[in-house]
UniProtKB/TrEMBL annotation:
Residues 22-52 form the Zn(2)-C6 fungal-type domain. It comes from Imshaugia aleurites. The keyword Iron does not apply. SMART domains: GAL4. It comes from the Eukaryota. PROSITE patterns: ZN2_CY6_FUNGAL_1, ZN2_CY6_FUNGAL_2. Pfam families: Fungal_trans_2, Zn_clus. This is Zn(2)-C6 fungal-type domain-containing protein.
Length: 436
């Protein structure tokens, strides 16, 4: 750990710092968890369920961006685990049953008959079709895919159905703050199961499951952006941990798309492929000459600075220059796209093309990667109306401002100004809609 990273982490020490590996209940109560398993002492004392979730599945997808082959086949398992009835609602059992609702939990009721309905699953599916889908697509053709086509595909692919359940539960947690913890726990369980099943499906990618794998790759990004706020872990995580995870997941998706792209292009989801990075506008100028001049100076900074650390290799500067050039192209593309679902495309473009070494330096709080993520937040702020991104930009910018050395502070002025302008424009737009 370098001296800057150490000093930043020292400044952020609080009277209490939750462990990343603590149970969900202790995180929600914002108390320290002793991490005893299967049930921590705090939950034992309160006689409450004790659920551990380390975002294993998300981390596995993120690591796909750092390995040469993402197609290592995991152990096979059933598509859906048994679903006991606990605490008045159906909760899926994680395979091997070693981390969810074990000690001191009421025993499950007898297995339901073949005609029994899983009302909790039906609730999540209904919410996804009726409500969440409306927040994932704006154009009629995209909306129809999320509302009808993708749920129909999920009927044949358990990993996609679990992912739909997870995102729907996150959305409900966002809409119902009083029930946030309950729905977050359900979302986490479904997402972990979805990730396990997706790895097996990816190892056997074919025309039959290509559309399901592609749909899943989009949903997992939405889940990654929305989950820290829903889980209440934003304040207890390491600085920029959420940004690093989202970027690594988006980078990992680069390995998911190419093997199945041809099949997706021949199927009903071809319109969604436009959300993925393609040809970006790099040989154009900003509509505002002042922005164009600023970015020229910004490119010089990223092409010449080595974070003021002489131990960095020359390749560091080359990676910074490449990342800055791609970021500029993403800005120009975002400027040329009208409001709508395609507005998310430039977000993917920059993150998917980052080198793993760049993301590692971001995790170590090196100044230039911090400054670039602050500029990326300007693009993210353009879609702040989407529920899964709400609060993410402000939280990330706050962390960057806290971690960035003072000598780099001037490079936050432009993104901060742009984000504020977008916030004001968005607020006026809401007021205008409300008054019409």
């Amino acid at each position: 750990m370098d001296s800057h990273e150490a000093s930043v982490r020292k400044r952020r020490n609080r009277e209490h710092h939750n462990s990343r590996n603590g149970c969900l209940q202790c995180k929600a109560r914002k108390v320290k968890c002793d991490e005893e398993k299967p049930k921590c002492r705090s939950c034992t004392r309160r006689a409450t369920p004790c659920t551990y979730n380390n975002n294993t599945g998300l981390n596995q997808l993120a690591r796909a961006a750092q390995v040469s082959s993402p197609y290592n086949k995991p152990e096979s398992g059933p598509n859906f685990a048994p679903v006991p009835y606990l605490h008045g609602g159906f909760i899926p059992t994680v395979p091997n049953g070693n981390n969810v609702h074990q000690a001191n939990s009421p025993p499950p009721m007898a297995p339901p008959s073949p005609l029994a309905l899983n009302m909790a699953h039906l609730e999540l599916l209904h919410h996804f079709i009726a409500v969440t889908s409306e927040a994932l697509g704006v154009e009629p053709i995209i909306l129809q895919l999320w509302k009808m086509t993708i749920p129909q595909i999920a009927l044949s692919h358990g990993f996609l159905m679990h992912s739909i359940f997870a995102v729907a539960a996150l959305h409900i947690a966002h809409l119902r703050p009083g029930q946030r913890r309950s729905y977050w726990e359900r979302a986490a369980i479904h997402q972990d199961r979805a990730m396990e099943l997706q790895q097996e499906a990816m190892a056997n990618a074919s025309r039959d499951n290509a559309d399901a794998l592609f749909s899943f790759s989009l949903l997992v990004v939405y889940f990654a952006f929305a989950s820290p706020k829903a889980s209440g872990s934003q304040d207890s995580e390491e600085p920029l941990a959420g940004a690093v995870q989202c970027i690594n997941i988006m980078r990992g998706i680069r390995y998911v798309i190419p093997p199945i792209q041809q099949w997706v292009e021949e199927g009903p989801l071809v319109q969604l492929l436009s959300l993925n990075p393609g040809n970006m506008k790099s040989n154009h100028s900003f509509s505002d000459p002042e922005d164009d001049r600023y970015f020229q100076r910004f490119l010089v900074l990223c092409s010449t600075s080595s974070d003021m650390n002489k131990t960095h290799e020359y390749e560091d500067i080359e990676q910074y220059a490449a990342a800055a050039s791609t970021l500029r192209a993403s800005f120009l593309t975002a400027e040329s796209i009208a409001d709508g679902t395609l507005k998310t495309r430039p977000i993917w473009h920059w993150a998917c093309r980052l080198a793993p070494e760049f993301v590692q330096r971001l995790g170590k709080l090196h100044p230039i990667p911090l400054v670039m993520v602050a500029h990326w937040c300007v693009i993210l702020a353009q879609i702040r109306q989407y529920w899964w991104i709400q609060g993410w930009v402000d939280h990330t910018m706050g962390q960057i401002q806290e971690c960035l050395p003072p000598e780099f502070g001037e490079w936050l002025e432009w993104p901060t100004k742009k984000i504020q302008e977008q916030r004001e424009n968005w607020t006026r737009g809401i007021d205008g809609i409300g008054s019409s």
